[in-house]
Amino acid sequence: MAGISIAVFKLTIAIFLAVVHTALAAPTPPPFNWGSISSSEKLSWHKCYNDFQCTKLKVPLNYSSPISKANSASIAILRRQANVSSRSKEYKGPILFNPGGPGESGVDQVLRIGEQMSTILGEFDLVGFDPRGIARSTPKASYFNDVQRAAFTPLSGLSITNQTDEGVGRTWAGAQILGKLAGEHGKGFLEHLTTPNSARDMRSILKAYGRDKLQYWGISYGSVLGATYAAMFPDKVERMVIDGVADADDYFSGSGAIDLVDAEKVMESFYTGCAKAGPENCPFHASDAETIRSNLEALYEKLRTQPVPVVTSDAITIIDHAFVRVAVWTALHYPFDLFKPLSAGLAALAAGDGSIMFSLFGAPPAELFCDAKAHTDDYVFEGTFTLVCNDYVPFSNDINDSKKALEEMAKVSQFADTWAQLRIGCSGWPKIPRNDFRGPWTGNTSHPILLIGNTADPATPLVSAKKMSSGFPNSVLLTQNSFGHTSMVEPSTCTYKVVREYFTTGALPAPGTVCEPDFDTPFRPDDAAKQTRRALSVEDDQIREVASQLSANFAKRRHLSPLSIGL
C-alpha cells in the first residue's frame, strides 16, 4: 500500500483537530439526580438540565394486571416545552421520540436535539422517554457490575463476529454468559421488557398527558416500535413519522439479513466520493475508487498481523482489524459527519499512527467512582440484547445454527461480521413466554403515517420502508436522496419542511416525493455552506443551519462501544 506525503499527513491532523474542536464546543447540561424524584401514575414535572422538565411515570410491569407494588415499572420521561403556552390555541401537544438502538435513551436524544427541534416544531412539547428496562427506567436490564462489564465486553465477541481463531465460537460463548446472567438477574421482570409493552407504555404516557392519540417520531428501531403501536392501536394515531424504517417481520424473526442489502452501496459511496474529492478533502485519496477499495482491504489485512499500538496520556489501546472494521461500519451510518474524518484516520493509520482512529472511535477513558450509584443512569449494552432477544423468535443453542446465520448474512454484505452478533448474541437467551403481539404490522390508522427512507441506508434499506408502507393504507414514503442511517444524519431542508408541515397540519407529501440533501458530498470543504445545491430563502437557510446542527448532534448518539451499533 502506498504511503502518504507529509502534506497529506498534516492535512489529516488539521481535519482531526477541527472535528475535535467542534465536539468540544458543544455545551453540556448540568447533571440531574433522577433519584430525587419519585415515580407516580401522574406526570409530576420537575425542572432539570436547565431548560427541560423531568418526571417518572409508574406503569404496569405486566399489562394483564393492574399496577401494584409487585407489578409496576417506572418510565423516565423528559420534555422540552413548546414555545407557546399549553393553553394557547397554537399549542399542538406532545411529540414522543424514540431514537432507536434498540435500547437508546429517548431522554438523552431530546437533551441532544431538543433545542434544534424546537426551532422546527416550536408549537409542540418534545418528549423523550427511556423505554422500559433502559437507562433511567426501572427495573433496568443490567446484569453485570461495572467491573464484570468492563472485563466481559472485550472478551465476549459480541461486538464483532468471526474475528479470532475461535471464529463464531467466541461470540456464541459470550452469548451463553449473557443469557445465563440475564436469567439469574432478570427474574420477575425479564419477559416483560418487550417492544409491544413499550407501545403500551406510550399509551400510558398519553393518558397521563391527557391526550388520546399519539404524535410520534421514531428513528431506526423506533420505526419498529412505531409500527407496533400503529398495528396495536390503529385508531389512536394523530401523527406518526418513522424514519430509517426496519422491516418489522424481519426484525421479529431475528434474521437481520435484509437490513444489510444497501450497506455495500454506502461503502461504495465512500470510495467514489473520496476519489472525486481529491487529497485536499479526502486524505485517504487515490486516483480512482477501485484503488481506494484495494488500499482499505490491504490495510485490513495488514492489521490482522500487525496491529498499531496507541498510547495517550489517559488511555492505551491496540488498533487492530476488528477495531477498524467496526469504525468503518459506524462511519457508514454517519457519512456526512464521519466520512471525512474517517479518511484522515485511515491515512494516518496507514502511516503507522493510530491516534486519530482511536480518538474518533475508541472507548472513552475509564472512570473510577467511589459512589456505587455514579453509573446508575448509564446506557449498558445488555439493554439492547434484552429487547432484541425478547422480541426475536427463540433460537437454537446449537453453535452450528449460529454459524449458518452468519453465512447467510455474509451472502448479503461483507458487514455481516458487524451485524450478526445481535442474532448470535441471543443464542443463549433464557426461555421466556412469547405469547404477546407479534404482528401483523398493518392497520388503517386514524391518520396516515409518514415514512422516510434514504436512497441507501446501511441498516434499514429503502425496500423495508416500501414494504412497511404497504401495510398501512394511505401512508406515504418520502425518499431522501442521501446515504447513511436515517434522514437525520444528513441535513435536508426539504425533508425538515415536509416533516414540519406534516406534524403541524397533517398534510402528506405527494407519493413519490424525493428530497435532496443540502450538501453535495460528505467530503465537503471547510466552507461547505458555499457549495450547497441551490440558493435558499432566509427561512430555508435557517432550517438548513438547524438541520446541520441536528445532524452533528444526532451523530453523537453513537456509543463508542460497538456493542451498541444496532438499529
From TrEMBL:
Residues 1-25 form the signal peptide. Pfam families: Abhydrolase_1, Abhydrolase_4. Coiled coil: none annotated. Residues 94-245 form the AB hydrolase-1 domain. Belongs to the peptidase S33 family. PANTHER family: 2-SUCCINYL-6-HYDROXY-2,4-CYCLOHEXADIENE-1-CARBOXYLATE SYNTHASE (PTHR43248), AB HYDROLASE-1 DOMAIN-CONTAINING PROTEIN-RELATED (PTHR43248:SF25). This is TAP-like protein-domain-containing protein. It comes from Ephemerocybe angulata.
